[in-house]
Amino acid sequence: MPVGIFRVCLLVITAIINHPLFFPKENGTVLENTEEIIQKMKEREETLRLEQLRLEQEIADQEATQMALEKAALAVEESKEEKVRWDMWTALSMVIFLLIELWRQDFQEGNWQDIGGDEDDMAVLGKAFKGVAFPNKAVLASFYEKRILGTTGDMARMREMVEGFADDLLEALRSVCNRDADMEVEDCVGVGSMYENWRVRKPFVCDLIVPFAPPEPYCFRCQTWCSGDSFSPDEQGYGTIKVCRADEDVTGCICDKTKLGEDMLCLLHSQVNTTRPSSEVEDLLCFKNTQYLDADQVMKWFQIAVTKAWNRISHKYEFDLSFSLLDSPGALKIKFRSGKSIAFNLTPVVQYENSDVYFISHFPRSSLAADAPSSTHWFLTFAVYERRFIHLVSKMLPANACHVSCLQILSFLHGKQCSLTGPSGLTNYHLKTVMLHLLQARPSQDWAPENLEARLQDMLKFLERCLHEKKLYHFFIGNGKVPAELGFPIIFQRAEPLNLFRPFVLRRDIYRKTVDTFHEMLRNMSALINEYTVHIPLAHPNGIRKESL
């Protein structure tokens, strides 16, 4: 019984203790703490989620940056490769260009005017030589001996007489000129066919050039078409001459281009030099309002000076002197009382630097050549170097070489044909240029006297090829094989070749007439040679054209 009561009491006590309402505050705290923990866990979870999002964003940004860097690096690499490829193509293009330029120079030097060394290389392009009866060696030798060889003595006597008179005339010219205002005239120089011993047709005409220089304190400064200045294609072969003071800077001083103050003084030029007097040289010989030498003014001055000089010495001579041709201001004629006359050309020129290239005021022109661009453009003549080259080559050729004989025969035939059918675009200067090219291309032994017939055919065939191509290069300009012994200026050797037949491209009428005259000459060649081999007629003065320098 007591045990049962104890158990009941123990059960009641246990029930009371474990009743929820017995500890209300403690149970509420536990509940509140649980909710707070849950809330904190949620906040923590939200924070972790935001942190995860931030980290994911940063990772994404880093990946984007990395990709951008990789793309940039790839682009740079590609640009480098592209640049390398472009540089490679540029270098390759430059190499190709240099190879082409070297080939062009080799072609010009090694195949100058496309001259071959063998007979097969001189093949005729057209039908000019088909059916042409070419004279044999015996006929050519007889023709040369009877018709041409006898004129050599006459040329020598005439040269001696003309040179002596010209020296006396120029000495008188110096005496009548004002040394302080007029040009200073130097000794004359003989050029052209008379001094190269190949002129054959009468009347004989001596060509003399007279270098002149300005008085002190002036000097000439020359510019050519190949010196880097601006010249048009039509001005190739020309140059200009500027009259300057000797103490004037070539590049020009700043005091000439700016206005200096009254209290400023140029250390290079004194006040005396800054005032340029208006001398007779500047007033008469320069083009209006320029410093460039005027060829027309120079010829007027020269004609007046020659007239005064002749008036001073005319009493010593038993002949008259006059200007013979209006279109050639330097053409003079000596008239003897017996009725005979001697013609010669006295032309003023300006020396190019320290060479024997000269600016010539009036160059004897043919129907092929155009007029000078202006009176301030001077034509360049290389006649002195041409004479020297022929003399130099002649020393290396066999005795009695046939090069001059070929040129004389060709000049005679062309002159006779022009007297029959009228003038053409060809001149004796073109014929001489052909000979100069062949002299450089052919070995020395090929010009032996027994090869006269073969070399004459070479010249005719070469001339026909040039006419067909409308291309005959000036011998010196652009020719890198000029012998060093001549001392020829390097600036002209490096220049572009000058085509003497360029006007044929523009003047088809003259070209057609020239080709027809050349073919007609070939057909009449045998008849003309045979005619003059049988008998030697008197010289015919009519229909003879003056040769160029």
TrEMBL record:
Residues 404-477 form the Mab-21-like HhH/H2TH-like domain. Pfam families: Mab-21_C (PF20266). Keywords: Cell membrane, Coiled coil, Glycoprotein, Membrane, Nucleus, Signal, Transmembrane, Transmembrane helix. It is found in: Cell membrane; Nucleus outer membrane. Residues 1-15 form the signal peptide. One of its GO terms (molecular function) is protein kinase inhibitor activity. Residues 31-72 form a coiled coil. Its main location: membrane. GO terms for cellular component: nuclear outer membrane; plasma membrane. Gene3D superfamilies: 1.10.1410.40, 3.30.460.90. SMART domains: Mab-21 (SM01265). It is a single-pass type I membrane protein. PANTHER family: CELL FATE DETERMINING PROTEIN MAB21-RELATED (PTHR10656), INOSITOL 1,4,5-TRISPHOSPHATE RECEPTOR-INTERACTING PROTEIN (PTHR10656:SF8). Enhances Ca(2+)-mediated inhibition of inositol 1,4,5-triphosphate receptor (ITPR) Ca(2+) release. Belongs to the ITPRIP family. This is Inositol 1,4,5-trisphosphate receptor-interacting protein. It comes from Serilophus lunatus (silver-breasted broadbill). The gene is Itprip.
